[in-house]
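Hi there, hope your week has been kind to you so far. Thanks so much in advance, here it is:
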Amino acid sequence: MRAIELITANGFPFNGTLGIKQHAHAFYQIFYTTEGRANYVYEGQSMDVEQGTFLFVHPDRVHGLPVNQPGSRVLDIKFNVRETQLARQLAALPPLVRCTPDMQALLALADEEARKKEAFYSNALSSLIESVLYLAMRNSCPQYSGAGVGVLNLLECDYSKLSECVRKTLLRIEGAIVLGPDKSVLNETAQAVGYSKSYMCRRFSEEMGMTVMQYITLLRMDKAKELLLNTDNSVSEIAELLYYNDLTRFCKTFKKYTGQSPTQYRSAPAEQHTSLRYSYRRFIDEP
């Protein structure tokens, strides 16, 4: 089953004299402005949607387009979300989304598919929309930004100046966040990157300002954030997935790196989710 079920997709101009009466519906909708700009109303608020942005209409939200607009061309996409996890994630997406160049490129392809309506266009559009939505959440939702490999951005280091040994170690670790129990992970990582464990650990500490295990812990905590937000797994199940056999140790470590317990982080509103806390060459310890 596809995550996105397309209903319709069409591109058309608004000449400024026509509008859309305020209404609500049970499906999702995207108004992507390809030319010009228009001022929509969404849940009683004015939304200025210019070229390169889109209005994301959540189900059952009242929206409309008043008359006497400057004029614009819009790609109008209506769809359902059949995947429960994606629908839950999309609840955090704001109604006004500014597109990155990658998102604009995908939406340009979607516009072309909607115009031509060739064989399998519905399947192609569904895949394009899904990709756009994930990119939109990454760029517009604080709780999804800076995840995964983005941990490296916390460390104030220039990746290009790292040695081959450290770069290979980072790629190995970031490519397999859940690497295994602590007692074996260093040996397996060193074997995978082709250096002795002692040399790898020494170079990593010198260049990164932390041990390999401290960096792995950062990645595990970042993964824990993702699992807490995007799955129904219990805290103990998440701890086990990340090779923490001691639940108390996992919870203590998570709070050290985020300032919140796993339960607090999961239940907090999106704007209260904290980032991982790491200062280059210095832990920020809890008092």
